Amino acid sequence: MSVETIRVDLGRDLLRANDQVAAENRAACAATGTRVLNLMSSPGAGKTTLLEAAIPLLGRLRVGVIEGDLFTDRDARRIARLGVRAVQINTVGACHLDARMVARALPALPLGELDLLCIENVGNLVCPAGFDLGEDGRVAVLSVAEGSDKPVKYPALFRTAQAVVINKLDLLPHSDFDLPEVLSVLRETNPAAAVFPVSARTGEGMEAWCRWLTDFAGER
Amino acid sequence: MSVETIRVDLGRDLLRANDQVAAENRAACAATGTRVLNLMSSPGAGKTTLLEAAIPLLGRLRVGVIEGDLFTDRDARRIARLGVRAVQINTVGACHLDARMVARALPALPLGELDLLCIENVGNLVCPAGFDLGEDGRVAVLSVAEGSDKPVKYPALFRTAQAVVINKLDLLPHSDFDLPEVLSVLRETNPAAAVFPVSARTGEGMEAWCRWLTDFAGER
């Protein structure tokens, strides 16, 4: 059967105002020497589990976390259990964080005491990629269970990430995920990105990922 | 550590115009006796695979598919391979389908020859739930690999679904997914929803799910 394709064009004007606030966030964090990461993924790719697994391995690095979620504070409570300062932003239905939300959360954090601020965005491969939060780097997290086609289907996120974490590597034997193909697609679409296949559950690959986090936090 | 929570309020005015077009879509499909389903899930939960596995089991039911994706026509091509009429909507970056996009796709389908029209939304647990496309029923697809907390974290989608498909049941032994807990949460938040634990990959549970689809298509 033939396939017909209909293309829809949308304006992107609302991003201008966001960029100004993002620049202010970036300046505020740079002033205290805090490096900021924006973590993005589908729902359930394992962003929070990845932070839970990484934070205890980061040694003396002083980490703070901003959690974005529609309604709950489940993720911030998980992070706070590690003894790490966590602020929850509830977007009350909005599908992404924006710079204004982060600006409201920053005063709740002791920025002067933090080397690294991780912002966990709302679980969504589309909208978060369009909004600069004031981060110094972006991390795209992809779960093995999501399938190999995601970097092609959601290019905005994967093209703008400094690092891509391929999580749930322990599910590789039980899925059709084609790791060599995904690595090849990522090399083509975003050759500068560092790629880390890991399992936050088993710890596989976490050492290299944590080394990247430590290096990133030290780039001041 | 304590958790601070910041709530953000957003307006929802833009939905009014959508509702009018959705009503027109619904009327157009009702006029030809075509029942319409809106399938929603995270990226990679397996919506297309679920359709690929179900369509050959639906016997004489005449099925058409509208595929929503940001840029590619991969999913429509997968469906067309089954000999089923498939129309691809490219949202060009937009994170959800809306009624206007579906209205533009409907003329490309032979509605009078279709019993069931499945609309596969953009992979996203948030935004699609806010937009009526003119469907007669909504299906939320949740993958076992996404974790048990998704119905609580993304309530709008799971509360408004007539059916919830819990896919990738073959990954259950390899994940922390708590099926009894999720079933209990769904019973509480959406007691009217029919729930189908399935594996589109192994075929487990597909018979009950296809029976529901057939019954749904017959409700005219």
Strand and helix map with partners:
The structure is a homodimer of 220-residue chains.
Chain A (H helix, E strand, L loop, with lengths): L2 E5 L7 H17 L3 E7 L5 H8 L8 E7 L4 H7 L4 E6 L8 H7 L10 E5 L16 E7 L6 H4 L1 H5 L3 E5 L11 H11 L4 E4 L8 H13 L2
Parallel strand pairs in A: 2-5, 2-6, 3-4, 3-5, 6-7, 7-8
Helix pairs in contact in A: 1-4
Kindly describe this structure.
Two copies of one chain form a homodimer. By secondary structure, chain A is an alpha/beta fold. Helices cover 33% and strands 21% of the residues of chain A. Chain A has a seven-stranded parallel sheet, sandwiched between helices. In chain A, α1 packs parallel to α4. The longest helix of chain A is centred in the N-terminal third of the chain and has 17 residues, at 15-31. Chain A is globular, with a radius of gyration of 17 Å. Chain A starts with a strand and ends with a helix. The mean pLDDT of chain A is 93. At the A-B interface, β1, α3, β4, α4 and α5 of A face β1, α3, β4, α4 and α5 of B. β1 of chain A pairs parallel with β4 (85-90) of chain B.
Summarize this entry quickly.
The structure is a homodimer of 220-residue chains. By secondary structure, the first copy, chain A, is α/β, with parallel strands linked by helices.
Share of β-strand residues of chain A: 15-25%
Q: How large is the radius of gyration of chain A?
A: 17 Å
Query: By helix and strand content of chain A, what is the structural category?
Result: alpha/beta
Low-confidence stretches of chain A: none
- Biggest sheet statistics of chain A: 7 strands, parallel
How confident is the prediction overall: mean pLDDT of chain A?
93
Label the overall shape of chain A: globular
SS elements, strand count of chain A? 8
Order of helices and strands of chain A: EHEHEHEHEEHHEHEH
- Characterize the quaternary organization of these chains: homodimer
How are the strands of the biggest sheet of chain A laid out side by side? 4-3-5-2-6-7-8
Please count the helical segments of chain A.
Answer: 8
How far apart the termini of chain A lie comes to 56 Å
Q: Which two chains form the greatest contact, residue counts included? A: A-B, 66 and 66 residues
- Which percent range fits the helix content of chain A? 25-40%
